[in-house]
Each structure stands twice: as C-alpha cells, then as structure tokens.
Design goal:
This protein has 169 residues and is an alpha+beta fold. It has one domain: NADH Oxidase. It is built from five helices and four strands, in the order ααβαβαβαβ. It has helices at 3-9, 23-33, 53-58, 91-108, 122-132, and strands at residues 45-50, 74-81, 112-117, 138-147. A four-stranded antiparallel β-sheet has the order 1-2-4-3, sandwiched between helices. Helix 1 packs across helix 4 and helix 2 packs antiparallel against helix 4. The protein starts with a helix and ends in a 22-residue tail after the last strand.
Length: 169
C-alpha cells in the first residue's frame, strides 16, 4: 500500500479478533515508530509493549475509553524521557509523531489500531506510570491498542477546505 493510500484509508479500530500479533509484525511497528522525526533528533521515546492479559484487562479501570483493550492482542504504551534543555520540552510532539507512524504501519500491514490519549491528564499519567513502573524521568503519552480488525472499515474523506488559510487567518 502506498503512503497516501495508507493515510487516506487508515481508521481507528476498536474491535479486534482473538488472533495474536506476531513478533515480526510488532517489530515492524516499533521500527516504524523509531523512524519518526524528533526535535534535535533527541528520540525521547520509549515503548512498553503490554501483552499480559491481566494488565490489559486492568487498563479499562484507569482509562475511561479503553474497553477495546479487553479484545486487543496487545497495547503499546508510548512514553517520553524528560530531559533538560531547550529540546527536552518537545517530547510530546516527538512521541505523537512516533504514534502516528505506528498507526500507519499497523494499517499498512493489515492490523488495526487506535490511539488512546493519556497525557496531559495528570491522573491518567500517574495511573499508567504506576501500572508499568515508569521511572520518574519517563512520562506516558498515549496507549495504542493493536490487533487484527474484527470488521472492515470504510475510508472517510475528512478534507475540509474551510480549514485552510493562506498567509493569514
């Protein structure tokens, strides 16, 4: 699938089959994530692969829109290491770019995925940090539920020329 087709046909998938995600497919997703651009090439991202069913079934109790974790094959918790300096403040943008790469790569190899926001909700961030034992200098940004889609999703054309402005508002 070419990149523009992937961008235009990717959808958030919230229903999954019981089929596992292979180690090879997981590596494809993680490699795609680490190809993302980052401020000053800082690459602050860290990824916690969550495939323990007990942990996955706990997640809906700490994230109100994560019921699909009960069906997903795995979750990828995208985290950022907080560092001193001017570029250290861009960890969320860097992790967002890595997240989008995961979503596109998943779609490109026939998997489904959905982005579940964690940051900047302090309470949610604290719950996920405790759940996976993050060090103090690493913060959770989002969780991506990943699996094989339980149904087909139709593309949705979201282009809106009213939201395009040239030179000034």
């Amino acid at each position: 699938m070419d990149i523009l087709t992937a961008i235009q046909t990717r959808r958030s998938v919230r229903r999954f089959t019981s089929d596992p995600v292979s180690e090879g497919d997981l590596e494809v997703l993680l490699r795609a994530a680490m190809q993302a651009p980052s401020a000053d090439n800082g690459q602050p991202w860290h990824f916690i692969v969550i495939n323990d069913r007990e942990i996955m079934n706990t997640i809906p109790s700490i994230h109100p829109w994560s019921e699909m974790m009960n069906e997903a094959a795995l979750g990828i918790l995208v985290c950022g290491r907080i560092v001193e300096g001017e570029m250290g403040g861009y960890w969320q943008q860097d992790c967002a770019a890595a997240t989008e790469n995961i979503l596109l790569a998943a779609h490109g190899i026939g998997l489904g995925a959905v982005w579940l926001g964690i940051a900047p909700d302090a309470r949610r961030m604290a719950h996920f940090s405790a759940l996976v034992g993050l060090p103090d200098d690493v913060q959770p940004m989002c969780l991506i539920a990943v699996g094989h889609p339980a149904r087909a999703y139709l593309p949705d054309d979201r282009y809106d020329p009213e939201k395009v402005h040239y030179n000034r508002w």
